[in-house]
Design goal:
The protein is of the alpha/beta class. It is built from 12 helices and 11 strands.
């Protein structure tokens, strides 16, 4: 039997949220699944050590439009899938399955939108596998990779190793870098700390500020590392503190307690699925009310984050 799963959302965090359901479908069908996903989800790197996947089929700009639709349907048809599971309510993907000749099609109700993503995925998958599923994702890593990262970066138990997720997909989702520098200074005065800075290649301004700050000598920036190298580093850390980014979701899925600073994104949707994520939201907001257009990056105090971090480090 050959099984295809479609999860078309862009983000790393989105893909991690769907991990329990991908594994459940593979287990239910007793096969390794094929996954149709966007490259931006970085699923090939995230799932490098997982054993539930047969292949990842890229969903990219060449699959857009009418010509892209027929190109993709032909590619899917050639693989002769017996079943398809579609984690969205798009008519396009329903038609794709039909044109590809897949007989057994399972999909969200058509035109599903504005949902709480982990809840919709949970309800959908449970109806198919016939059992209650945990929403908690667990990312697998090779033990030797975790040990190598510990040795290369000289990570030890004497020091509190903390990931600072200072990057974000947009300026309104980014707590100011000056807050992070202040926070790191406070934490390093409280306990011996070392900070692994989770940033992207385009965050040169943020990196420069850190390198010119008083915490530079206790920081390691990870902008040049691939995800496959970053994951084992995170696994060795005691805590994540940062914006709602893929790094937060990776940390939580690796069992690391993660303080998520939600300034302008749906806090419940992106924290409620994991006991490892401790959401901090703007003053006057709740986890349920903080969403897109909250614009609250100036309404979260350094002191509130510091107190939460102290509690977790103890």
């Amino acid at each position: 039997m050959k099984v295809l799963v479609i999860q078309q959302r862009y983000g790393i965090g989105d893909m991690i949220i769907f991990l329990p359901y991908l594994k459940a479908l593979a287990e239910k069908n007793n096969v390794k699944i094929s996954l149709l996903a966007k490259k931006t989800s970085r699923s090939s790197e995230l799932f490098k050590a997982e054993n539930f996947l047969d292949e990842i089929i890229d969903l990219d700009s060449t699959n857009d439009g009418i010509s892209g639709f027929f190109k993709l349907s032909k590619e899917i048809k050639e693989r002769k899938f017996d079943k398809i599971y579609i984690f969205n309510g798009s008519l396009r993907y329903k038609l794709l399955a039909i044109f590809a000749g897949i007989k057994n099609i399972y999909q969200y109700p058509l035109f599903t939108s504005k949902d709480i993503i982990f809840q919709t995925a949970k309800i959908f998958t449970e109806s198919l596998v016939g059992k209650i599923l945990s929403t908690e994702p667990h990312l697998s890593l090779k033990v030797e990779d975790v040990n190598d990262a510990r040795n290369i970066y000289k990570i030890n138990e004497k020091t509190k190793n903390i990931v600072l997720g200072v990057s974000a997909s947009g300026p309104t989702k980014r707590w100011d870098i000056d807050h992070y520098i202040k926070l790191a200074t406070q934490l390093s005065q409280y306990k011996e700390c070392r900070f692994f800075i989770a940033v992207g290649k385009d965050d040169s301004e943020i990196i420069d500020k850190i390198k010119k700050s008083n915490i530079n000598n206790i920081c390691v920036t990870m902008e040049k590392l691939p995800i496959s190298n970053i994951l084992p580093i995170i696994k060795n850390c005691n805590l994540y503190i940062g914006n709602d980014t893929g790094f937060m979701h990776m940390s939580a899925a690796l069992g690391v307690k993660s303080i998520g600073i939600f300034t302008d994104s749906p806090a419940y949707s992106y924290s409620g699925y994991s006991k490892n994520i401790i959401p901090i939201v703007p003053e006057g907001e709740t986890v349920e009310s903080t969403t897109h257009d909250t614009l609250g990056k100036d309404s979260i105090s350094s002191e509130k984050v510091f107190k939460t971090a102290k509690k977790l480090l103890n």
